What we know:
Elements: H1 2-12, H2 16-29, H3 33-45, H4 49-62, H5 67-80, H6 86-94, H7 101-114, H8 117-131, H9 135-158, H10 164-178, H11 185-198, H12 204-217, H13 222-234, H14 239-254, H15 261-274, H16 278-291, H17 296-305, H18 309-324
Helix pairs in contact: 1-2, 2-3, 3-4, 4-5, 5-6, 5-7, 6-7, 7-8, 7-9, 8-9, 9-10, 10-11, 11-12, 11-13, 12-13, 13-14, 13-15, 14-15, 15-16, 16-17, 17-18
Amino acid sequence: xxxxxxxxxxxxxxxxxxxxxxAIRADELxxxxxxxxxxAEIYQNRSQVDEQITYLRQALRIVPTDAVVKQQxxxxxxxxxxDVNWAEIESLLVGSSSxxxxxxxxxxxxxxxxxxxxxxxxxxxxxxxxxxQEGVFGTDALRVxxxxxxxxxxxxxxxxxxxxxxxxxxxxxxxxxxxxxxxNYNDLYTFADFLIQYADSSYLDKAANLIRxxxxxxxxxxxxxNANLNLAKKQxxxxxxxxxxxxxxxxxxxQTDTLTEDLVWLIAGKALALSGAEERGIKWIExxxxxxxxxLVEYVLALGRSKQGQKAIxxxxxxxxxxxxx
Length: 326
């Protein structure tokens, strides 16, 4: 018991070497599902996928019906990128008549992202069929299908080959999702973001309405800030108005217990800089750094992006001189 507690303690501080030592000791003394999964997680963080898979297999032997371990094992095997036994992946995720909805969706997602052309086509058709169902499973399937469509639109845009039919289908499916009684806050955000990024300007009013629905639920989230600034940028709203939007968000976010003051300034500064108000955004990132030196990298990168290389060098020099003088 002591060894596993020590292993978990070191893990929390990202000391994976020490955590591994104690976890191995705990597993030797009293092997269990818990010790196997902890070892698998440690190896995952050490990018030792083969060892991660070994311990996930051992955990599954202890509890053969554990759907969560099956999902983790399937993802690890596919993520390794070699020697994928597709029969094993199918057995892990959908081989049982009682396969969980999450396992079924994960299997389809894996086939779409990593399978052969035939596997991808079959999986996509299955996903689309599921997405037409009602209830929790149908809504989850629709959510995954919308994500797939967004990915396709993004790929087409990057290739300079936007497809109107694909965008139209994406809008139809996202509309169905956000109008579902089981839709959530993130669904509103992803649809609004899709319309701002990919649809023509006639859909901006729809995007604004989705953002109003978001803000009615919670207007102090990072999603709210990003959505409002992205919409303002798309509408060519003045820099002053974008700053007002961000300042208003800072006031709201500062009144919550979710974010510390330094994080509020950092998030607002980065979002504002990306929206085009770079000068004010960098000043806010500097405020975050002044309150918390851990944001040195973010401040230096922001300076670099704004072609203030010499200032970035000076900031680094002062930071490390201050550290060495302690």
